[in-house]
Amino acid sequence: MKQSVTGTRRSVAALFLLPALVLLGALVVYPIGYSVVRSFYDQSGDGFAGADNYKALFTDAGIRTALKNNVIWVVFAPTVATALGLIFAVLTERVRWGTAFKLVVFMPMAISMLAAGIIFRLVYDQDPDKGVANAVWVGVHDTFAQSSAFPKAHPGRDSPLRPDQGGFLTKTPVRAGTPVALPLVGVAPDQMPDSAKNAVTAPADPGRITGTVWQDFTRGKGVGTLGAPDPSELGYAGMRIEAVKDGRVVASAKAADDGTFTLPAQADGARLRLPASNFKEAYNGLDWLGPTLVTPSIIGSYIWMWAGFAMVLIAAGLAGVPRELLEAARVDGATEWQVFRRITVPLLAPVLAVVTVTLMINVLKVFDLVFIIAPGSSQDDANVLALELYRKGFSEDQPGIASAIAVFLLLLVIPVMWFNVRRLRREVRR
Length: 430
What we know:
Blueprint: H1 10-38, H2 52-59, H3 61-91, H4 98-106, H5 113-123, H6 132-144, E1 161-164, E2 167-170, E3 180-184, E4 209-215, E5 240-245, E6 248-254, E7 260-263, E8 271-274, H7 294-319, H8 323-331, H9 336-347, H10 349-364, H11 368-373, H12 385-395, H13 399-429
Parallel strand pairs: 3-4
Antiparallel strand pairs: 1-2, 2-8, 4-7, 5-6, 5-8
């Protein structure tokens, strides 16, 4: 019986390889072959469709969007994840807590895509009280541009105010010595400013304009007097009031905590206006999962998961970099940036290539994050090829087109895999 170079009988070697070959054929070769054949048949599977299913890859609007998004994923996700991994690996090399930091950054790799998708669906929630991203964004925004406390305030029944340029204007001019009542409704009690106090009627002042602006609403049916402050009603603390004559603001004031305000004598005969700035809607942050930002947002969640993977591989490569070269460069007067750019990065080029190519293969198959994070209203805008394959095959019952997408994805992955294998063989020969 023939033997191999190592002395092992070929039949014995074939016997040991047989289970692996059977599994490979059943789980890889057969599905690929079946998908290729099925991609040439119509929806029923009985009629030969030729290249129609492949034409749909470039004519169907959903598939074109998915292809465009896949290009964005392949360009940005591996690049950013690799760059962050490189930065983390280099910066944590010399610090005591570097190992702990790497552990924290790598920890998301232990989370499944499903769990990560659920986490980031909550992170990107539009409501700042629920979504962390908008809570931070709104906090920063409100630091520089505070929103109004009265966005839903408006005049009630028989009010002396009428709408004007987003705010409200008195229907008649006001006169010194006669207190002005400016009742409003529409603000929930828990939304009133913390400094607001019980509203009171402003005292008359013969030489000035006085008045009160307050929440003219008391809980309980038939309770309270319309048009006059009641003991339990709160003043609109901080409300801005302007005196307008001939379209020009001649005086302005802010309401006190009890809603009272005072304007100088030049406001006599003017109309009082509550400008639109008093009723500006609260800023609710960005629509992270809207049509514009949904793809970058999901890419951000992917980077959160995979930057740790890139960091660990690059840190392993960095450990093999000859320290003599780095020290020699520093002795010759090179700055840390020059050492990083001209020595560290070139020496790590093979590792960076492995990480980038591996992530490129991975993002071509991304499905879970897009399916879970993107809401139904913007899932079409976040669509990728793997998700479109699922939708065509199961939701729309078009197995022929789904098989064509699968074959197309395989064709996209093969060149990247071939490049990676060829590069690895080249490294082994060295």
